[in-house]
Here is the input.
Amino acid sequence: MIKILIADDHAIVREGLKQIVTEEADMEVTGEAANASELFDLLEKDCWEIVVLDINMPGKSGLEALKEMRSRNINVPVLILSMFSEDQYGIRAIKAGAAGYLKKVSAPTELVSAIRKIVGGGKYINQSLAEKLAENVDVNNKKALHQNLSDREYQIMCFISFGKSAEEIAEELTISIHTVYSYRNRILEKMHLKSNVELTQYAIQNKLIEI
Here is the structure.
């Protein structure tokens, strides 16, 4: 039996993922976490064949949780789920130690095959992400400005580009509005941009968000 641990802060998403695998005789969701703290509590208590981890959770993000798993030598393979572009966020996920990256909209048709491939020892990445990874290791490839951002800065940049307000971002990430503005100023400085409009234009031009 493939024991699956799902970490996502939305109960309705967890339920949807459970429904996708419910018809598979050899798969079962035996653990659910709504945040990183609950995830690590469960990882200490039991063993799983795979963790399906949302990239956006309140407090510690999925990428931060993944990096902590690796620093603690918790070697359960991780499939990252995200609403964001595979081409860009996927690179960060794979570099952080994920065994696969899947957009949430693709989960109904690809989740089961992704889990099987990863549990079988492989990695689950689509062709577009594979090409981006190949470009990324090219030493002659100029480093894009957004690659200078930390994972949290990148996450907030994506939220801003999607048109979320500081209040909405603060609530989503359970941080203060002041902290959101501090991150925004740091992002603009690192990327040599002057406004949210320029930031959004950059994200669209570099296919960091889909329109």
Observations:
- Residues 99 and 122 are 7 Å apart (CA to CA).
